[in-house]
Write a structure and sequence with these properties.
Elements: E1 14-19, E2 24-28, E3 55-59, E4 66-70, H1 74-87, H2 102-107, H3 114-122, H4 127-136, H5 146-160, E5 163-167, H6 171-181, H7 191-201, E6 208-212, H8 218-227, E7 232-237, H9 245-248, H10 253-256, E8 259-263, H11 264-269
Parallel strand pairs: 6-7, 7-8
Antiparallel strand pairs: 1-2, 1-5, 3-4, 3-5
């Protein structure tokens, strides 16, 4: 049995969704389950069978939002938005933004009505096509500086051209996610601190590791991944144990089986002559939320 996680997203896998606006979401992939991307709720189905790191765009044709796999890199997708300016003639060398008025631009500068933009979406227009049409319909776009044109395009893309990258939930990616979403979940553990813990503890196959955990199981799960299914990790907890991290990392059953947990009080009162089996092990909670 392999101790390495699969490279493909499968039923029940956790992924960290990186949205084009910079937001991250921890999502469990279930067939038919919906997930929120901005104002839309496409299903998770297109994620199944895709590799971790795959990019998707949100399409809203036909009145229903759906994820569509995009084979381009995220840099190429971003570049397709900024290239709209060049396709419209680019910025004038003497543009200064001096004649622009934010209030007027928000009310009268756009020749396309809201209904026309929604009709383009309903007709299946791509995100790039929508941004192009909106920029072409702006009466002030041509008079903006190159910097202002790019800023304008990116603002419209965040609203009308949403992308999703399905990241593998590695320990470092999860640290970044929870630092932005809720640092208390990991006791404020940053990626540099976690890297230092894993480096200095030097876990390797066959090791027996004891750790005091308050990171919802992320630290023992990261240690178990380093052991590769050969060894043991005992997570001590001051309060109610939580090993949700074993699920977040998509550990194989072989790796997850190396992790046990006990309260710190049990460890401090455990007599050396006692049987090791007297220290109960805890399996990861099955009540982990589908997304956070």
């Amino acid at each position: 049995m392999s101790a390495s996680p699969t490279a493909m997203i499968s039923e029940g896998s956790f992924v960290v969704l990186l949205l084009s606006g910079g937001e991250r979401k921890l999502q469990r992939v279930r067939s038919g389950a919906a997930m929120r991307v901005g104002k839309h709720k496409p299903t998770c189905d297109p994620l199944l069978g895709a590799p971790f790191g795959a990019n998707f765009v949100v399409e809203t044709g036909g009145g229903e939002a759906r994820l569509v796999r995009d084979q381009r890199t995220i840099e190429e997708i971003d570049a397709s938005v900024t290239e709209v300016a060049a396709s419209l003639g680019g910025a004038s060398a003497d543009a200064t933004n001096a004649e622009l008025n934010d209030e007027r631009e928000a009310t009268t500068a756009q020749s396309l009505s809201h209904a026309e933009i929604e009709a383009l979406k309903a007709g299946g227009a791509s995100g790039e096509a929508l941004v192009h049409a909106i920029a072409a319909g702006s009466k002030t776009f041509a008079s903006k500086t190159a910097f202002s044109q790019e800023k304008y395009l990116r603002k419209k893309a965040r609203k009308h051209f949403q992308t999703v990258t399905a990241l593998r939930p590695s320990p470092l990616v999860l640290c970044d996610h929870f630092m932005a979403k809720g640092p208390d979940k990991l006791m404020g553990l940053r990626r540099d601190s976690l890297s230092l813990l894993l480096t200095l503890s030097d876990p390797r196959p066959g090791a027996r590791v004891l750790c005091l955990d308050g990171t919802s199981g992320l630290l023992p799960a990261a240690l178990a991944a380093q052991l590769g299914g050969d060894g043991a990790v005992l997570a001590a907890h001051v309060r109610q144990p939580s090993l949700d991290g074993l699920q977040w990392l998509n550990l194989t059953p072989q790796c997850a089986a190396t992790v046990g947990s006990a309260s710190l009080q049990q460890l401090l009162t455990w007599a050396p002559s006692s049987s090791p089996s007297s220290l109960p092990s805890s399996s990861p909670s099955s009540s982990s939320p589908s997304s956070s």
